[in-house]
């Protein structure tokens, strides 16, 4: 089950890289601020996809005697960082500044 989620998260990262790259290149070539702001927004989606990929990657690793607390802290950090980043006022402010 986790391996399927990791595979889907990896495909999501690749798709986000592709979409961000295409929007960025076409935005630069055409000089379109709309496409450049859309590329920045896709870049934030790419960050969220990468966090999700690492989250599922770390779920595969089982804690040992050496890494018990560190792995738990990392999992909790990744679990709560993505939603707080994607819905925070900072994200909205960043997007307003990028599209202004």
Keywords:
4 helices; mainly alpha; single chain; 100 residues
Number of domains: 1
Mean pLDDT: 76
Largest sheet: none
Distance between the termini: 43 Å
Structure summary, number of beta strands:
0
Order of helices and strands: HHHH
Helical run tally: 4
- Uncertain regions: pLDDT < 50 for 5+ in a row? none
Beta content comes to under 5%
By secondary-structure content and strand pairing, the structural class works out as mainly alpha
The percent range for helix content is: over 70%
Radius of gyration: 17 Å
Tell me the overall shape: elongated
Architecture overview:
The chain has 100 residues and is an all-alpha fold. It has one domain (2-99). Helices cover 87% and strands 0% of the residues. Helix 1 runs antiparallel to helix 2 (33-60) and helix 2 runs antiparallel to helix 3 (68-86). The longest helix has 29 residues, at 2-30. It starts with a helix and ends with a helix. The mean pLDDT is 76.
């Amino acid at each position: 089950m986790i391996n399927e989620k990791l595979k889907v998260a990896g495909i999501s990262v690749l798709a986000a890289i592709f979409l961000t790259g295409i929007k960025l290149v076409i935005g630069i070539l055409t000089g379109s601020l709309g496409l450049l702001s859309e590329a920045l927004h896709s870049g934030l989606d790419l960050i969220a996809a990468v966090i999700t990929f690492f989250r599922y990657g770390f779920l595969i690793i089982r804690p040992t005697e050496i890494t018990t607390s560190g792995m738990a802290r990392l999992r909790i950090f990744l679990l709560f960082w993505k939603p707080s980043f994607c819905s925070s006022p900072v994200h909205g402010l960043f997007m307003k500044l990028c599209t202004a």
